Amino acid sequence: MQVLQVQLEIRPDPAEVGRARRWARSRLAGSGIGDDEPLAETLILLVSELVTNAVVHTGRPAVLRLLLSGLCDGSIGKVRLEVADTSACPPTPRCSDGDETGGRGLALVEVLADRWGWSYEGVGKRIWCELDRVVPGVAGAVGVSGASGVSGASGVGGGVMPAGYPAGSAVTGVAAVTRDSLAREGLAYEVV
Questions:
Q1: Is the separation of the CB atoms in 75 and 32 below 8 Å?
Q2: What does the alpha-carbon distance between residue 155 and residue 172 come to, in Å, rounded to a whole number?
Q3: Per-residue exposure over 134-152, b if at least 16 CB sit within 10 Å of its own CB, e if not
């Protein structure tokens, strides 16, 4: 299996979020993943959330990485998104009221990603998530049903976000959802 890794340096400026989305779209298209594929739409939303968190909550530069794992036939089977920053503060989920405009980023990552987690890296941390590509008729490509479907993996899951994570622990989660289930849970999103 081949893995293509590309990265983009992010300045601590909110305008970088839009640049990160455009960059990620371009890299996906160059790898044969169209804008209209569910994986691309979801990944662009996750790029927005994780880059926004890095820019807004750390105020420091960050690095956005995409790792595209190829299947035997050369198509992309899994995409891993990573955002590394120099803040040692762990990601902390917030409980948002219905009228608040922020505070749902990690909840969206939990619900939309097939797997996600974080770990300390050097003086900072790396937050990552993975999406499995659904390609009808392509052998070896897995979809949402191909995820393990395990809830509560390593302390996160089942849609319940803990108030905080213990310092120094790597946290991972697994989710298998659709847009319909997001709507049932009262979460709405739009890719812009």
A1: yes
A2: 8
A3: ebeeeeebbeeebbeeeee
- Contact between 130 and 78 (Cβ < 8 Å): yes
Model-wide pTM > 0.85: no
Give the Cα separation of 45 and 190 in Å (integer).
8
Distances (CA, A) of 57 to 5, 89, 119, 192: 26, 9, 17, 21
Number of neighbouring beta carbons within 10 Å of residue 24:
23
Scanning the structure block, which residue is given the tokens 């917030």?
Answer: 94
> Which tens digit of pLDDT belongs to each residue from 75-95?
778 899 999 999 999 888 777
DSSP bridge pairs for 68: 4, 79
pLDDT for 6-45, tens place per residue?
Answer: 999 999 999 999 999 999 999 999 988 888 888 899 999 9
